[in-house]
Design a protein that fits this description.
Blueprint lengths: L1 H19 L12 H25 L6 H8 L3 H7 L3 H18 L10 H15 L3 H15 L1 H25 L8 H20 L4 H17 L5
Helix pairs in contact: 1-2, 2-3, 2-5, 2-7, 5-7, 6-8, 6-9, 6-10, 7-8, 7-9, 8-9, 9-10
């Protein structure tokens, strides 16, 4: 409903601007929930098609012709909603990251924060062997978006949770007192690099086992003696 409301505001703004500039508006489509819903359906079809093709073929082996054909829309619709293939990729990237974040169980105050932290980091390493995370997030993500934006996005999805769990683990007495900002960045960098190592390995499952062992060793060194 929020998207429909936003779309109707956009259409109303178009009418108002057209009237102010003396442009005839009789031929413009009337704003309606049906029009807005169709626009949202078109956008979602493009996201679904892009997601399937980017995962199965990779970004650089996927053409815009394939995307619009699978989505059942025109090339104009692609550029209207996203402006470029790269912008569509970013939408797919965010959708996959949100899905990964949403899959985690809600944090409870009574939870053992260190156990949750370890499970979350190791869970990401497990996920890095799946096609979506491997291809879109870890292989094509840095190449398409560039390292600065990729790292910024990774931090936006993971850094806050790591900081919160570290803070709770210290409060619970599991970890010794230490600077949270630098430690959370170190752990985020470590798990990202381990995931990249897994995704780009010729033997991802073997690489995953080695990465899990290294991550457990790193985390164990943080526990209060």
């Amino acid at each position: 409903m929020r998207e429909v409301f936003a779309y109707n505001l956009y259409v109303k703004h178009t009418y108002d601007m057209s009237r102010a500039q003396g442009v005839p508006v009789d031929s413009l489509p009337l704003p309606s929930a049906n029009v807005a819903a169709h626009a949202l359906d078109t956008r979602q079809s493009l996201v679904d098609a892009g997601r399937h093709l980017f995962v199965s073929k990779g970004y650089f082996n996927t053409g815009t012709e394939e995307i619009v054909r699978e989505a059942g829309v025109t090339r104009g619709a692609l550029y209207h909603h996203f402006g470029s293939k790269k912008a569509l990729f970013l939408e797919v990237f965010n959708a996959i990251q949100i899905g990964l974040t949403s899959a985690a169980a809600p944090l409870k105050e009574s939870d053992d924060a260190f156990v949750r932290l370890e499970a979350g980091l190791l869970g990401f390493l497990d996920a890095s062997t799946t096609p979506e995370i491997q291809q879109v997030i870890l292989i094509d993500g840095p190449a398409v978006l560039g390292w600065p934006l990729w790292r910024e996005l990774e931090a936006s999805y993971g850094l806050g949770s790591i900081q919160l769990l570290l803070s709770n683990a210290i409060a619970q007495g599991t970890l010794r007192e230490q600077p949270l900002d630098v430690l959370s960045h170190i752990l985020l960098a470590a798990v990202d690099e381990a995931a990249l190592f897994i995704a780009n390995s010729e033997h991802p499952l073997v690489a995953r086992e080695s990465s899990v062992a290294a991550m457990r060793s790193l985390l164990s060194g943080l526990i209060r003696p």
